[in-house]
Amino acid sequence: MILTFFDQFSSPYLLGIPLVLLSTLLPALLLPMPSNRWITNRLTTLQLWAINKITKQLMVPLNKPGHKWAIILTSLMMLLLMINLLGLLPYTFTPTTQLSMNMALAFPLWLATLLTGLRNQPTASLGHLLPEGTPTPLIPALIVIETISLLIRPLALGVRLTANLTAGHLLIQLISTATVALLPIMPAVSALTATVLLLLTILEVAVAMIQAYVFVLLLSLYLQENI
Fold first, then answer.
1. Is the pTM of the predicted complex or chain greater than 0.85?
2. Residue 17's beta-bridge partner residues?
3. Would you say 110 and 219 are in contact if contact means Cβ atoms under 8 Å apart?
4. In three state form, how does the secondary structure of 37-68 look?
5. β-pair partners for 14
6. Which residues of 9-28 are buried (b: 16+ CB within 10 A; e: fewer)?
7. Which residues form the signal peptide (predicted)?
8. Domain spans of the chain?
9. Helix or strand or coil: residue 18?
10. pLDDT per position as a tens digit, 155-166
């Protein structure tokens, strides 16, 4: 069977059963479960330290009422971080390269922030559609433009995460294929290509962490506008 570069993004199946749900939930099982012991092992201590740092960083742009979302935002950050990093391993499937999954995460959370603002402060939330001091002839056009920019936010969240991870995976596969193909013909060029592949892999690890952080940070900024 001839495989293409895009076959790595197809959903895996086993006996006709899609394994997307399993590949999504499996990273959460790798985290050590917290215990009630006073003295824990180093892995649990590292996990608690990382979650504490992530939570503090995500709560920086939010005021006091927004801290109610700490569990949701931190859990989403850890989920995306684990999925993105584990997806860089060989022979693994990355669910966050699927636009459908990213939109399923982005749209409900964006809608929740919007409904929170409309419930708590409807005047201020609707006031974002019209900047202060706008000339009267430009009011209808600006309302339409701001409404479109508001509705396109969840699409931008999902497409940004999908595009960055998909591009990184394709680059890694292209360069790794070139490295193997050039090895018997031009070993020196193949070694140079392997060095580029190593640097690109390090870059993709950083991109996987940054994109998870950007996704959750933008959601927290949308939340701050509505509370």
1. no
2. 14
3. yes
4. CCCCCHHHHHHHHHHHHHHHHHCCCCCHHHHH
5. 17
6. beeeeeeeeeeeeebbeebe
7. none
8. 1-226
9. strand
10. 999 999 999 998
What are the pLDDT digits (tens) for 46-104? 888 888 888 888 888 888 888 888 888 988 988 898 888 888 888 778 888 888 889 99
First-last CA distance in the chain = 54
Q: Where are the alpha helices (DSSP H) in 91-186?
A: 99-120, 122-127, 139-151, 153-182
Spatial separation of the C-alpha atoms in residues 127 and 137, rounded to whole Å: 17
Residue in 170, 183, 223, 179 with CA at minimum distance from that of residue 197: 179
What does the pLDDT look like over 105-137, one tens digit per residue? 999 999 999 888 888 887 777 777 777 777 778
Chain-centroid distance of CA 183 in Å reads 35
Short-list 112, 21, 141, 180, CA closest to 149? 141
Beta bridge partners of 18: 13
